[in-house]
Specification:
The chain is of the alpha+beta class and 254 residues long. The chain has a single domain, classed as q2cbj1_9rhob like domain (Jelly Rolls, Sandwich), CATH 2.60.120.620. It has 7 helices and 10 strands. The longest helix has 17 residues, at 25-41. The chain starts with a helix and ends in a 9-residue tail after the last helix.
Length: 254
């Protein structure tokens, strides 16, 4: 049904591929049940993203450690095969994030907190829509041709130390945080004649993307959106230790 070679070529060129109806509706309903249960059961672990004066989605990190459906999504090798045909180094999944984005009157809500890149180096994610997503309930936005050029970044509130700056330069990282204001992105899109891809779709649709490209969740104006995201990183001991020692690892449910 899905050709890995074609999909990997598209992921390489566009930074994003979409697989329609990969999971059935019953699977998606079960994951939604798990998310709702997890929000209630692990309330102290639920995080809410905030950036650019917006609220964000309710997030459950590490759902694969507790829930069976999330484990199925975590262990799906088809997505990983596509990514590994594109990536410069072998990749593997590290954890599943469950997300619930709900419209609240008189409040600006989105998933991810505005335009950003996860980092400057390549990084991959696999997102699963668990309910139907239209233009109003927070679809994923992605700029395909945004890898080689950049917009003006938001200045960091805290300056890096000289040692951190040197490390970033040695590793080829940008010195500024890869987050952007709406006005900066609007100018960037106009100057480069680009239009973001608004990913509308149905329950069971898969989005595989390189998160070093510009992306965000659109502000929600109606209803609700549920999703799972599989975080993919290099298959190295160094990366494994970095995830284990990161601040957000303390939010993993178990």
């Amino acid at each position: 049904m899905f050709d890995k070679s074609i999909l990997s070529e598209k992921l390489k060129s566009d930074g994003i591929v979409i697989l329609k109806n990969y999971y059935d509706i019953n699977f998606c309903k079960e994951v939604i049940r798990e998310i709702e249960e997890g929000i209630d059961k692990f309330n102290d672990k639920v995080t809410i993203t905030k950036s650019e004066n917006t609220g964000g989605d309710f997030r459950l990190f590490g759902m694969d450690r507790v829930y069976d459906s999330a484990k199925v999504f975590f262990n799906e090798t088809f997505f990983l095969d596509i990514i590994n045909q594109v990536s410069k180094q072998k990749q593997k999944p590290y954890f599943i994030l469950g997300g619930k984005l709900e419209y609240l009157k008189n409040s600006t809500q989105n998933s991810g907190g505005g335009w950003h890149r996860d980092q400057d180096k390549e990084q991959f994610k696999v997102m699963l829509y668990l309910n139907n997503v239209n233009s109003e309930n927070g679809p994923f936005l992605f700029v395909k041709n945004s890898k080689t050029t950049d917009a003006k970044r938001i200045r960091q509130k805290q300056k890096d130390s000289l040692i951190i700056k040197i490390k970033k330069l040695v590793k080829g990282y940008k010195l500024t945080n890869p987050r952007y204001s709406d006005s900066s992105i609007n100018n960037y899109l106009k100057e480069n004649n680009l239009t973001p891809t608004e990913v509308k779709g149905g329950a069971g649709d898969i989005i595989i993307f390189n998160s070093s490209f510009l992306h965000r969740g659109k502000n929600i104006s109606d209803s609700i959106r549920y999703s799972l995201t599989n975080y993919i990183f290099p298959d190295t001991l160094k990366q494994e230790k970095a995830i284990k020692n990161s601040s957000f690892s303390k939010t993993f449910i178990k």
